[in-house]
């Protein structure tokens, strides 16, 4: 395992813990490292029941990753709408969905060959 993969794993687990701190639901960690043409090492997908909870999860992830690992997201999308917020840390991409948006986009189905860990 390379140093980069170890850092990706540490980042992914830090993100999951931050999501759990704010009661994110249906948390899945998709390990994409063994897939051809994967856009990152990990996708983390979770649900929140409301826009305020989505924002709380976003803030928790942002603060914990910054505090523990000194990293900021490369890109953030969807903050204004708060139905699907994407936090791109390059090797780890975080998706925070309202349940109806998650059902609509079906990211897990797009990456069905990934190794999945449920939390």
Helix/strand layout:
Layout: H1 3-21, E1 25-31, E2 42-47, H2 51-69, E3 75-77, E4 84-88, E5 92-97, H3 99-105, H4 107-110, E6 115-118
Parallel strand pairs: 2-5
Antiparallel strand pairs: 1-2, 1-6, 3-4, 4-5
Helix pairs in contact: 1-2
How would you concisely characterize the structure shown here?
The chain has 119 residues and is of the alpha+beta class. The chain has helices at 3-21, 51-69, 99-105, 107-110; strands at 25-31, 42-47, 75-77, 84-88, 92-97, 115-118.
Integer-rounded radius of gyration: 13 Å
CATH architecture: 2-Layer Sandwich
The number of distinct β-strands equals 6
Order of helices and strands: HEEHEEEHHE
CATH fold-level name: Beta Polymerase, domain 2
Q: Report the β-strand fraction as a percent range.
A: 25-35%
Low-confidence stretches: none
Structure description:
This protein has 119 residues and is an alpha+beta fold. The chain has one domain: Beta Polymerase, domain 2 (2-Layer Sandwich), CATH 3.30.460.10. 41% of the residues lie in helices and 26% in strands. It has helices at residues 3-21, 51-69, 99-105, 107-110, and strands spanning 25-31, 42-47, 75-77, 84-88, 92-97, 115-118. A six-stranded mixed β-sheet has the order 3-4-5-2-1-6. The longest helix is centred in the N-terminal third of the chain and has 19 residues, at 3-21. The chain is globular and about 35 Å long. The model has no long low-confidence stretch (mean pLDDT 94).
What tags apply to this protein structure?
single chain; 119 residues; alpha+beta; Beta Polymerase, domain 2; 6-stranded mixed beta sheet; 4 helices; 26% strand; globular
